[in-house]
Write a structure and sequence with these properties.
Number of helices: 2
Strand content: under 5%
Radius of gyration: 24 Å
Order of helices and strands: HH
Number of strands: 0
Shape: rod-shaped
Length: 92
């Protein structure tokens, strides 16, 4: 018995996994909008009345300080995974 490697031309090729590259700038813009708009809406509805008397710059600072970590660490990873799932499902 020989343990020589099989001839690669006779073995079926394994399907190559589909690799989703980084998002295009348009995909990224849409993903950011999908994450930012609802986050700011919920924050405005929940804490807006408590900070309504503050200066607009301070209100913006407070909202941005809360919204940015929610979007970057909470929502964007999920949106990136969803994008990859959609792209690989479409390619398969």
């Amino acid at each position: 018995m020989s343990t020589a490697p099989e001839n690669p031309s006779t073995t079926p090729a394994a399907p190559r996994p589909v690799v989703a590259g980084p998002p295009t700038k348009h995909q990224l813009a849409l993903m950011i909008w999908i994450a930012v708009f609802p986050t700011l809406t919920v924050l405005n509805l929940t804490i807006g009345p408590f900070i309504a008397a503050q200066h607009p710059v301070l209100r913006t600072f407070i909202l941005a300080t809360i919204a940015v970590p929610i979007v970057i660490y909470g929502l964007m990873p999920h949106l990136h995974r969803l994008r990859i799932q959609l792209l690989t499902r479409r390619a398969a």
